[in-house]
Design brief:
Helix content: 25-40%
CATH superfamily: Spore Coat Polysaccharide Biosynthesis Protein SpsA, Chain A
Radius of gyration: 17 Å
CATH architecture: Alpha-Beta Complex
Structural class: alpha/beta
CATH class: Alpha Beta
CATH topology: Spore Coat Polysaccharide Biosynthesis Protein SpsA, Chain A
Order of helices and strands: EEEHEHEHEEHEEEEEHEEHH
Largest sheet: 10 strands, mixed
């Protein structure tokens, strides 16, 4: 399986911590988020991961070069000239993936005890074009699923905006975990170009294709988007048992 680590973001909400480094190089429990994500992928059996870079790209390359693995290749997709968002970043990285293999996508600012091996096994047992890891958690933006856990829409409870892709009698609302797997055939369905978010692509295709939801129920999950969330994550990790900490990677 291929993987892509989205690590090109500006980290604007993490300022001033990102004034002199990218958010991927912020440390949690003595390990940068980049290192933690790469170790998690390596321990999950991923054999090739593409990391996109933009903000402080020289520092990112130095950190990637420091990562050593006997079983996983790490390749850089350089977006220094233009930040392409998740969808555009994925499309730019397409030539770097091993052809005909699924791609696991992972946001670098996610810290979780969720087992990627279980998620990968779930994806292999379903016939959807993609699988999305989700969780019941407080958020204003929800992915909507039907009773078969097929992606059926999206809503923003703050703005009232709602997009329905499959009609159903009842919607189940979940927060997206920033971890997903897609089949390579999705590239042939892309009509987008340049800079675009991948969720727009998913919602467009979900009308005619199956996107499965994988509920992560008992796993810990943290989104390090602000200094306050970083502090919360660090405190939570410090209080974890050693066994639980090992599940982070």
């Amino acid at each position: 399986m291929n993987a892509m680590l989205f690590a090109a973001g500006l980290g604007t909400r993490l300022k001033p911590l990102t004034n002199n480094k990218p958010k991927a190089l912020i440390e949690v429990n003595g390990m940068t988020m980049l290192q933690m994500a790469l170790k998690k992928m390596e321990n999950s059996g991923i054999r090739k991961v593409v990391v996109n870079i933009h903000h402080f790209s020289d520092l990112m390359i130095e950190e990637i070069n420091r990562f050593r693995s006997d079983c996983m290749e790490v390749v850089v997709s350089d977006e220094s000239d233009q930040l392409l968002d998740t969808g555009g970043g994925l499309l730019k990285a397409r030539p770097l993936f091993d052809a005909n293999s699924p791609v696991l996508l992972y946001n670098v600012d996610i810290v979780t005890t969720a087992r990627l091996k279980d998620f990968i096994a779930f994806h292999h047992t379903h016939t959807g074009i993609a699988s999305l890891m989700v969780k019941e958690r407080p958020t204003s933006r929800h992915l909507l699923f039907n009773d078969r856990m097929e992606l059926s829409g999206w809503e923003n409870t703050s703005s009232g905006e709602r997009i329905i892709t499959k009609e159903t009698s009842h919607f189940h609302s979940y927060g997206f975990q920033g971890i997903h797997i897609l089949e390579p055939r999705i590239f042939d369905l892309m009509t987008e170009s340049g800079k675009f978010p991948i969720m727009e692509l998913y919602l467009r295709l979900a009308r005619d294709h199956t996107f499965m939801g994988y509920e992560s129920r008992n796993d810990l999950w943290f989104d390090i988007g602000t200094p306050k969330k970083l502090e919360t994550t660090r405190n939570a990790v410090e209080q974890m048992s050693e066994d639980k900490k090992r599940q982070l990677f």
